[in-house]
Specification:
The complex is a heteropentamer, with 1 copy of chain A (about 290 residues), 1 copy of chain B (about 260 residues), 2 copies of chain C (about 350 residues) and 1 copy of chain D (about 375 residues). Chain A has about 290 residues and is mainly α. Chain A has 13 helices and 4 strands. Chain C is built from 9 helices and 20 strands. The longest helix of chain C has 18 residues. The chains are: A mainly alpha (about 290), B mainly alpha (about 260), C alpha+beta (about 350), D alpha/beta (about 375). Chains in contact: A-B, A-D, A-E, B-C, B-D, C-E. Chains A and B meet through helix 1, helix 3, helix 4, helix 5 and helix 7 of A and helix 1, helix 3, helix 4, helix 5 and helix 6 of B. The structure holds adenosine-5'-triphosphate (2 copies) and magnesium ion (2 copies). One adenosine-5'-triphosphate binds next to strand 2 and helix 1 of chain E.
Chain lengths: ~290, ~260, ~350, ~375, ~350
C-alpha cells in the first residue's frame, strides 16, 4: 500500500537538480573558458588550456613536458583520505560493535554520544587538537611529568591524521553500528559453539556480517576526506598541499578560475570512480547477505 | 532471550571502544576547560575566569554570527527535512528500479566535494543574479541538508509495518488526514533525528557558507575562522561551550520526548 | 439472504513478480458470505487468501470480476469508504495512540460526535474485555491483548463484514485456543459476518460455519466443516485438511478396486466413488483417515509396524505395507501399543473411504 | 595580557597635546593637525570626540555594509560611529584579498565599503568593481600623510582612502636564534638554531616574493630562470620548516614554538608582548610594505553612508583607535597623539628610516608571473 | 551409563533483569542424560529451558552447581572447547556462507585436513538429505531445509551431546511433523544423546525417550512420555501436558471423594491418591483427561452442553455442570455430536483419574 505517490519526491529531486546540477554545469562551463582579464573570473574564449595545465608544463628552464605536480597533489589527497579511512575503520569498527553490544536502552545514548562532538564547530574541534598536541600542551606535559619525552606531534602527518580521523569518525561508526545493531548475536554464539574462539568469531562471523556497514562507512569517510583541507593546514603544519587547498588557491591567489574548475572536475571524476568501484563492492556485500 | 552476546568475549573491543570515546571527548574537555582561561591565548593557562563568557554576551558580532547561524540552520534544516520527508514518501511509492536512482540522486550533495559545491554554487547564484545573503545561504544549506535528513526518515519508514497505513485507510482515513494523523506521528522519530542531523551539519558548515554568504550574513563558522586567523582567544572556547550546552540540553529533551513516543 | 451479504463473483488478480514473470494470485474466485455467517478461508501459504481479503477491503484492485455488499457494488469504492473492516495479522495498531484512541480512530474519521465516540469505544472495550486498559499504549499490552484491540478497533465501526487475516497466527497454542473461543463468542454476540483467513485446518474446523478451501488462487471446495473433512472432493482437500492415507489402487473393468494388491472392494461400497472415477482412465487413490483404520488381527491388509509414537490421548502407528507404502493409523492410547517390527493386520471400513482422482 | 582583544576595553588614551608623537616614519612632520577644538563642544565624554563631519552633518541615518578582514576593526569604534552618525554598520568578513576579489568578481553585491590591499586595487579598478569616491576631496583627506596621497595603485586617491599599513618581515626569537638573519637570503639559508622550527606564512604571494628577493630577483619576475633558482633554494629549505600557516603565528611565537616566523609587524608586536625575546627583522634585501584601503564597490547600495564612513575613519582620533586595536600604523597625520605610547615607540610598529627604506609596496604581478608563482608554491608545498 | 553421559547437578542461575530485580532462571536443576538417550526438556515460556541449554553449551555461566560430561567437569571449559553442540531455534546459520561452508565451519575450527572435512561434510549432507543444496546460501533455502543445515552443522562435529533449542518452533504443522520423524530417525542412526527443548507437549510426547518437565527454573517431573502423561505428579504437569479436566472435590474423613456434589468415589479407586493427599488438609483436585470422559446416559455426572466443536477426527464438547464448572469431553467424531443446550450425563472411569494437590 502506498502512503503517497512518487510525485512527492519531485520537489526534492527538482531542488537537488537545481542546486547541484546548476553549479556543476557552471563549473564545467568555467573549466572550458579562457581566464578573465587579470585572472579574475573567466573570459569569453573557449579553450582546454585548463586541462592541459593539469599534466603539461613549461618548466622554469623553458622545456615543455609532462608534469605531475598537480596530479601528485590529487594523489596525496587520495592517500590521506585512504589513511584516514583505514584508521577510522580500525577505531570505528570496535566502537560500533561495542555499542551494539550494550544493553538496548543504552545504545541510543551511546550513539548520541558519538555525535555530540559534532555539535562544536569543526574549527574549534581542530583547534582543540592543536592545544592538545603542541609541545606545551597537556599531552606532552602529562608524559613529561612521568619522565617520558614525546616526539613532536603537532605539525606532523600524524597530527593531520589524528584530526582527520577525529572529524570523520562518526561517519564510520554510525553505519557500522546500524549494521551491527541488526547483527544477530546468536550466530556469534553459534560460532563459539562450533569451536571458534572469540577472536575468530570477530573475524569470521561479525566482520562479514557488518560488511555492508563497513563499506558504507568507508565511503562516507573517504569521499569527504579527499576534499578536506582544514586538518592538513592546521594540524599538519600546512606542508602538504591538498586538492581542496589547491582549488581554493586557483580561485584566490593564483587567479585561475578555469584551472580551478578543471581541478574540481578532476576531483569529481576521482570521487565518481571511487563510487563506481565501491558500488560493486557494496552490491556484492548485499548479495551475500540478503 | 535477549539475543545479546557478551562482549567481554571479544578481545580488545571494550578497551578500543573506551579509547575511542576518550579520543572523541578529549578535545571537548580542552575546549571547555580553556574557555575559563583568564589569559588571552587559548593554549596558555593563566588562571580561572569568566571574562570570555562575559565578552561573548557583550559582543554583538558574536551574537550576530550565532544568530545568523541559528536562523540559517533552522530554516535550512526545516526546509531540508520537509523536502526529505516528501521525498522519502515518494521513494517508497516508486517502482523498484526507480528508488535507488532517486536516492542516489538525492545523495549527490554528499558526494560532491565541498569546495566544488562552494565555487559552483556561488557562480551559479551570480549567474542567476541572486543577491547573496540569508536566502542564498539557506538555499545552499538546504541542498546538503536533504540527504542527511533523508537517511533517518527512510530508515524509520523501512522499519514501519506498512499494514499500519492500510489499517488507517481501512478505518476511513485518506489523503491529508491519513498523512497528518498517521504518517506524520509514525515518522516523528525519524523526522526529529533527520532534522537534528541536518541542523548540526548546517551549523557547522564553513566552506560553502563562506562563498555564498552575503554582507549581513556572517555565520558563526566564518566568524570563528576569522578569529582563529587573527590568533585564537578563549572567546572561541566560550562560544563553543555555550553552544555545546544548548545542544546537550536540546538533545536530552528530544531524547526524553522521543522515549515515550517510541513504540516498543 | 445473499443479496444482503457479501457476494464475490469471478474475481481474478494477477501480480507481476519483482523478478519478472507473473503470479495469478486469484483465479476466478466466487464466494458468498451471509449477513451473520462465519466463513473461514483456508488454504496453504501463497494460495491467495490475503489477496482476496485485500481485494474486499479495497487495498488491492482486482483485474476482473465484481464484489457486491448488501446488493451494492463494492469494488469501485475506495478502501476508506467501504463498510468492511479488517483485523490485520500483525494487528497494525497505531503505536503512538492509546488503546482508547486506537479504537476511536475509525469513528473520528467518520466525524462522529465526541459523546457517541466515547460511548461506542467504551462498549467495544467491554466486548473484548479490555476496559481497564484504555489508557495504555499497544507496546504495553501482550500479544493476545493487542489482538483484541485490533478486533475492537475494527468492530467499533460496525462493518457489514469483518475481515480477519490470520489474526491468531502469532499467538501460542494455549492462547490461540482461548482466543478462538472468544472470537466465536464475539461473532455470535455482534451478529455480523466474519470472513476469517487461516492456514491452520484445525482452527478452520473449530471456527467456521462454512469453510472455503483455496488453492492456487481457486476455490476448490466450500462447505461445512463436516463436509470438507468427511467428504473432500479432491485429493488436495483430503490431504490438506487433517491427516489422510492416500492409497494407490488398481481398478478392473467390473469396478472392483484393489488396494496394495491385497484388498479388493467393490466400488459400490465406497462413499465418494462415482461412475466417472471408477470408470475413468485417471489415476485414482483411496483416501482414508488414520483414525478410521483399525489394527485388527482379522484385517484385510497386512504389514510391519515401522513406527509407533505415543501421543498421550492416542498413538500414532505407521505400518509398512511393502513397496514403500505406509499406512498411518491413529489408535486410542488405551489400546495396546504395537512394537516396531511387529507384523500386524489392519481393517478399513469401506464406508470411511473415498475414491479421488490423483 | 595586554593584547588586541583587551584593548577595546581601554580606548585610545587621550593624551591630548602631550608629546609631539614618536617618529611617524612615513609621514613628513609637516601638518601636525591637532584635534579640533570643536570636539570639546560635544562634551559627551571626557574623551575627545573629534569628528567634524558627523557634527556638521545632521545625522543622515541609514546603514552601511562593511566588508572587512576578520577582526580588523574594533566593535567599539563602529559603535561610536553609529552613535555619532546614526548610521548602522553591518559587518561581514573575509580572510584574504583574493576571497574578497573572488566574491566581488563573481558578482556579489550589497557591500558598501571594502578594505582591499594595495596590489589588488588595480584589478578592482580594471574590472570596474570599485567606483570613484574622490577621497582626496573629502573633508578629512587633509589629514592624509602626503606620502600616502599618490600611491601607485591609485594615483590621486580617486578610488580609495588609506586605512592601515604594515610590513611582512621576520619575527625572531633571540633566545633560540641568538644571531638573527638580516636578509631573506640569510633566512632561507636557515640560521643557526632555527632548523625544524621555522614558520612560514600560508601566503603564496608573500612567500614567493621573499624567496625571489633572496635569490636576488625582483618580485613578480617573469624570468623562469629566477624561479629555477628559487625552487632550488626552497628544496633545501623545506626540511627546516615546521609549519606553513598564517593563522596562530602570534600564539606560536609567544609560546616559543617557532624560532623564526614570517610575520606582519603588528602581529610581531603583539607576540612580543608575550615573549620579550622577540625581535622583528626588516630584511635588507627588501620587504613588502602593504597598505590597506577603503573603497566602495560599484553598485554599493548606500553610497552616501559609505562616504560618511570613510571620511569619519580618516579623522586622526578615530584612525588612532584602529591603530591601537590592531598595532599597525596609519597614514593620518596627527593620529599619533591618540596612539598608545608603547605602540608608537615600538620599532615593530613604527620602523626606523633605515628599515623603512628596505620596504616598498609591491604591485600586483602579471598573470604570467602569477602562474609561475602558483607552480613554485605548489611544488614547495607538496 | 551415567558416568558416560551428561550429568547436571544442582545448577542455579540468577539474572538481574534490565529493569532491576532478579530472575531465578535455574533453581537447583539436576538431570542426567544417557549416552544415546533422547531427552526432551518441556516447559512453559520463560521457565529456564534455554538458560539450561546455554549453560551446558557454555554460553552462559552458572552461579552454582556443576555439569559433567563423560565423567569430566564441563562447566569450567570455555564454550568453544566443549564437546557439545547446539541447534539454535533461529538456526543461526551464517548467512554469508554456503550450506557446505556452514557445515564445514566447525571442522575448520578444529583445523581438520581438507579431505576429511570434505568427506564428513558430504556425509552430513547426505544424512539430512541436502546433498543437492551444498552450494546454496541459507537465504535460498526453505525453513525446513535451513533447520536441517543447522542440524548437520552441529552433527558433523560429532558432539557427545547435541542440544536442540526448539528447533522446530518456526515450522508449520505439516513440516514439523515430518521433521520430528526425521529427527528421531537421525538420532537413532547417529546414536548420540539429544537434549531437546520444546514447549509443545505433543512434540515432547512424540520424540522423547524421557521427558523432563521444567517449571519456574525447577525440574518438576522426569519420566517416559507415558509416565508424565498418565501419571502426572503435580497439577502443573497434568495441566501442562495434554488437556485435563481439573475438578474440585470434597473429601470426608472416610476418604471418600465427592466431585461437583454429584459423584462420590472412594479414594482406593483413584490411581494417584496416596494417603497424604486423601488425608491432608490441602485443597485437592481430581484430574481426568477429556478423552477419558464419556458421554453416556447412565453417567454419574449431569450437565448441559455448552459448546460442541467438530474437529475432524474428534469432537470437543464442553459440558456445564453448574456453578461455573465445565467438563471438557473429547469424543470420536463418529459418535453423534450433541447439540448445544442438550442435557447429557457423563461417565468417568475412576481408573483414569488422579488426585492432585492444587
Ligand atoms: N504485491 C505483490 N506483488 C507480487 N506478488 C504478490 C504480491 N502480493 C502477493 N503476491 C503473490 O500472490 C500470491 C498470493 O499471495 P497471498 O499473500 O494472497 O497468499 P496467502 O494465501 O495470504 O499466503 P500466506 O498464508 O503465506 O499469507 C503469492 O504467490 C504471492 O507471492
Ligand atoms: N540475559 C538475561 N538477562 C536477564 N534475564 C534473562 C536473561 N536470559 C533469560 N532471562 C530470564 O530468565 C528466565 C528463563 O529464560 P529462558 O530463556 O531460559 O526461558 P525459556 O524456558 O527458554 O523460555 P522460552 O520458551 O520462551 O524460550 C526468563 O524469565 C527470562 O526472562
Ligand atoms: Mg496471507
Ligand atoms: Mg527459550
Amino acid at each position: 500500500m502506498r502512503v503517497g505517490t512518487r510525485w512527492l519526491a519531485s520537489p526534492a529531486l527538482g531542488f537537488i537538480a537545481f542546486m547541484v546540477g546548476g553549479p556543476m554545469v557552471v563549473i564545467v562551463w568555467y573549466s572550458l573558458r579562457t581566464r578573465g582579464p587579470g585572472g579574475v573570473g573567466v573570459g569569453d574564449g573557449l579553450t582546454v588550456d585548463a586541462y592541459e595545465r593539469l599534466v603539461v608544463t613549461e618548466d622554469f628552464a623553458g622545456n615543455v613536458g609532462f608534469d605531475s605536480t598537480y596530479l601528485e597533489v590529487m594523489w596525496s589527497s587520495i592517500l590521506l583520505a585512504a589513511a584516514t579511512m583505514l584508521v577510522a575503520l580500525a577505531v570505528g569498527f570496535p566502537t560500533a560493535v561495542w555499542i551494539s553490544n550494550r544493553p538496548r536502552h543504552l545504545q541510543p545514548l551511546l550513539v548520541l554520544a558519538v555525535t555530540i562532538p559534532f555539535w562544536t564547530s569543526i574549527l574549534v574541534r581542530t583547534y582543540a587538537w592543536i592545544v592538545i598536541l603542541r609541545e606545551t600542551g597537556p599531552l606532552a606535559s602529562g608524559f613529561d611529568a612521568v619522565g617520558i619525552d614525546l616526539p613532536r606531534m603537532l605539525n606532523t602527518r600524524g597530527a593531520t591524521l589524528v584530526g582527520m580521523v577525529y572529524t570523520f569518525l562518526p561517519f564510520m561508526v554510525l553505519p557500522i553500528y546500524a549494521a551491527a545493531e541488526r547483527f544477530d548475536h546468536r550466530i556469534a554464539e553459534a560460532g563459539l559453539d562450533l569451536g571458534a574462539t572469540p577472536a575468530v568469531v570477530l573475524r569470521k562471523i561479525v566482520w562479514p556480517s557488518v560488511r555492508p556497514g563497513v563499506v558504507a562507512g568507508c565511503l562516507l569517510v573517504f569521499i569527504p576526506a579527499i576534499g578536506a583541507f582544514l586538518q592538513p593546514e592546521l594540524l599538519g603544519g600546512g606542508r602538504s598541499l591538498m586538492i581542496a587547498n589547491l582549488i581554493q588557491q586557483q580561485f584566490g591567489a593564483s587567479r585561475n578560475w578555469p584551472f580551478g574548475s578543471a581541478l574540481a572536475i578532476l576531483l569529481l571524476v576521482v570521487v565518481t570512480v571511487v563510487l563506481v568501484v565501491a558500488r560493486r563492492a557494496a552490491r556484492e556485500a548485499r548479495v551475500v547477505l540478503s | 532471550m535477549t539475543g545479546q552476546a557478551d562482549t567481554r568475549r571479544y578481545p580488545g573491543i571494550g578497551p578500543a571502544a573506551r579509547l575511542a570515546f576518550a579520543f572523541l571527548y578529549a578535545p571537548l574537555a580542552v575546549v571547555v576547560a580553556y574557555s575559563f582561561n583568564s589569559g588571552p591565548i587559548v593554549s596558555r593557562w593563566e588562571g580561572f575566569s569568566l571574562v570570555w563568557y562575559r565578552e561573548v554576551l557583550e559582543r554583538s558580532d558574536v551574537r550576530d554570527a550565532v544568530w545568523v547561524s541559528l536562523r540559517v540552520a533552522v530554516a535550512a534544516s526545516a526546509a531540508g527535512t520537509a523536502l526529505a520527508l516528501l521525498a522519502a514518501l515518494g521513494i517508497v511509492a516508486m517502482v523498484r528500479r526507480g528508488s535507488p536512482l532517486a536516492v542516489g540522486f538525492l545523495s549527490t550533495p554528499l558526494l560532491v566535494p565541498e569546495i566544488v559545491t562552494a565555487v559552483g554554487t556561488l557562480s551559479f547564484f551570480v549567474l542567476l543574479d541572486f543577491e547573496r545573503g540569508m536566502t542564498t545561504l539557506v538555499l545552499a544549506h538546504t541542498a546538503f541538508c536533504i540527504p542527511f535528513a533523508l537517511l533517518p526518515i527512510r530508515a524509520r519508514l523501512a522499519e514501519l509495518d506498512p499494514a499500519v497505513f492500510e489499517a488507517a485507510s481501512d478505518l476511513g482515513a485518506s489523503g491529508f488526514r491519513l498523512f497528518r494523523r498517521v504518517t506524520l506521528p509514525l515518522l516523528v522519530p525519524g523526522i526529529v533525528s533527520g532534522a537534528l542531523l541536518a541542523f548540526i551539519i548546517s551549523l557547522d558548515d564553513y566552506l560553502i557558507s563562506a562563498f555564498v554568504a552575503g554582507p549581513t550574513s556572517t555565520t558563526l563558522p566564518i566568524f570563528l575562522f576569522g578569529l582563529i586567523r587573527r590568533g585564537a582567544s578563549p572567546l572561541i572556547n566560550a562560544v563553543s561551550t555555550l553552544l555545546l550546552l544548548v545542544t546537550v540540553a536540546v538533545l536530552t529533551a528530544s531524547y526524553i520526548t522521543g522515549k515515550w513516543r517510541k513504540p516498543k | 439472504m445473499v443479496a444482503e451479504g457479501l457476494r464475490i463473483q469471478d474475481v481474478s488478480k494477477t501480480f507481476t513478480a519483482p523478478e519478472g514473470g507473473s503470479v495469478r494470485a486469484l483465479d476466478g474466485v466466487s464466494l458468498d458470505v451471509g449477513t451473520s455467517e462465519f466463513v473461514v478461508l483456508l488454504g496453504p501459504s501463497g494460495c491467495g487468501k490475503t489477496t482476496l481479503l485485500r481485494a474486499i477491503a479495497g487495498l488491492e484492485d482486482v483485474d476482473s470480476g465484481r464484489i457486491d455488499l448488501a446488493g451494492e457494488r463494492l469494488d469501485t469504492v475506495p478502501p476508506f469508504r467501504r463498510a468492511v473492516n479488517t483485523v490485520f495479522q500483525s494487528y497494525a495498531l497505531f503505536p503512538f495512540l492509546t488503546v482508547e484512541r486506537n479504537i476511536a480512530f475509525g469513528l473520528e474519521m467518520e466525524r462522529r460526535p465526541k459523546a457517541e465516540i466515547r460511548q461506542r469505544v467504551a462498549h467495544a472495550l467491554e466486548l473484548v474485555e479490555l476496559s481497564g486498559f484504555a489508557k495504555r499504549t499497544p507496546a504495553q499490552l501482550s500479544g493476545g491483548q493487542q489482538q483484541r484491540v485490533a478486533l475492537a478497533r475494527a468492530l467499533v465501526k460496525e462493518p457489514k463484514v469483518l475481515l480477519l487475516d490470520e489474526p491468531l497466527g502469532a499467538l501460542d497454542l494455549k492462547l490461540r485456543r482461548q482466543m478462538q473461543a472468544e472470537l466465536k463468542r464475539i461473532q455470535r454476540s455482534v451478529g455480523i459476518a466474519f470472513l476469517f483467513v487461516t492456514h491452520d485446518q484445525e482452527e478452520a474446523l473449530a471456527l467456521g460455519d462454512r469453510i472455503a478451501v483455496l488453492n492456487d488462487g481457486r476455490i476448490v471446495q466450500v462447505g461445512t466443516p463436516q463436509e470438507v473433512y468427511e467428504s473432500p472432493e479432491t485429493r488436495f482437500v483430503a490431504d490438506f485438511i487433517g491427516e489422510t492415507n492416500l492409497l494407490p489402487v488398481e481398478r478392473d473393468a467390473a469396478g472392483t478396486v484393489t488396494v496394495a494388491g491385497q484388498w479388493k472392494l467393490v466400488a459400490a461400497e465406497i462413499v465418494g466413488a462415482d461412475e466417472a472415477l471408477v470408470a475413468g482412465g485417471d489415476q485414482v487413490v483411496l483416501a482414508v483417515r488414520p483414525e478410521r483404520v483399525r489394527i485388527d488381527p482379522g484385517g484385510e491388509l497386512r504389514g510391519v509396524v515401522a513406527e509407533a509414537a505415543y501421543l498421550g490421548a492416542d498413538v500414532h502407528v505407521a505400518i509398512d505395507m511393502g513397496e514403500g507404502l505406509l499406512i498411518n493409523v491413529r489408535t486410542d492410547a488405551q489400546d495396546a501399543i504395537p512394537e516396531v517390527g511387529e507384523r500386524v493386520a489392519v481393517r478399513i471400513d469401506p464406508r470411511h473411504t473415498r475414491l479421488l482422482s490423483s | 595580557g595586554n593584547d588586541d582583544d583587551t584593548q577595546p576595553a581601554q580606548p585610545a588614551q587621550p593624551e591630548q597635546t602631550a608629546e609631539p608623537a614618536a617618529t611617524t616614519a612615513p609621514s613628513e612632520p609637516d601638518a601636525p593637525e591637532e584635534p579640533d577644538a570643536s570636539d570639546a563642544a560635544d562634551g559627551e565624554d571626557a574623551a575627545p570626540q573629534p569628528e567634524e563631519p558627523a557634527e556638521a552633518d545632521e545625522q543622515i541615518g541609514g546603514e552601511v555594509n562593511l566588508y572587512n578582514w576578520t577582526d580588523y576593526i574594533s566593535e567599539d569604534l563602529l559603535a561610536r560611529f553609529s552613535d555619532e552618525t546614526g548610521i548602522k554598520v553591518n559587518l561581514s568578513n573575509y580572510d584574504s584579498n583574493e576571497t574578497m576579489l573572488a566574491t566581488l568578481a563573481a558578482g556579489a553585491t550589497g557591500y558598501d565599503v571594502i578594505v582591499p590591499s594595495d596590489y589588488i586595487i588595480p584589478l578592482l579598478i580594471d574590472q570596474d568593481l570599485i567606483q570613484p569616491i574622490d577621497a582626496h576631496a573629502m573633508e578629512n583627506a587633509a589629514h592624509i600623510d602626503p606620502a600616502f596621497l599618490d600611491p601607485y595603485f591609485d594615483v590621486g586617491r580617486v578610488y580609495t582612502a588609506p586605512y592601515l599599513y604594515g610590513t611582512t618581515g621576520l619575527a625572531v626569537d633571540t633566545s633560540q636564534v641568538p644571531d638573527p638573519p638580516d636578509s631573506w637570503a640569510e633566512f632561507f639559508a636557515v640560521p643557526e638554531g632555527s632548523h625544524g622550527s621555522i614558520g612560514m606564512m600560508n601566503d603564496q604571494v608573500e612567500v614567493v616574493h621573499a624567496v625571489l628577493r633572496a635569490v636576488g630577483a625582483e618580485p613578480c619576475s617573469t624570468d623562469p630562470g629566477d624561479y629555477a633558482l628559487a625552487e632550488e633554494l626552497l628544496d633545501g629549505f623545506k626540511s627546516a620548516v615546521s609549519v606553513i600557516n598564517s593563522d596562530g603565528i602570534i600564539e606560536r611565537m609567544a609560546a616559543g614554538e617557532n624560532s623564526i616566523h614570517m610575520e606582519w609587524n603588528g602581529a610581531a608586536y603583539r607576540s612580543s608582548l608575550e615573549n620579550p625575546d622577540l625581535v622583528y627583522v626588516y630584511p635588507s634585501d627588501g620587504l613588502t610594505l602593504w597598505q590597506d584601503n577603503f573603497a566602495v564597490p560599484t553598485g554599493a547600495p548606500n553610497f552616501d553612508q559609505a562616504l560618511v564612513f570613510i571620511n569619519w575613519m580618516m579623522d586622526p582620533a578615530n584612525i588612532a583607535e584602529a591603530t591601537n586595536w590592531n598595532a599597525y600604523g596609519n597614514a593620518i597625520v596627527g593620529s599619533d597623539a591618540y596612539v598608545d605610547t608603547d605602540l608608537a615607540s615600538s620599532p615593530m610598529v613604527v620602523p626606523g628610516s633605515q628599515e623603512l627604506s628596505y620596504a616598498a609596496p609591491v604591485e600586483s604581478c602579471p598573470i604570467e608571473a602569477i602562474d609561475l608563482y602558483d607552480r613554485l608554491w605548489t611544488s614547495f608545498r607538496s
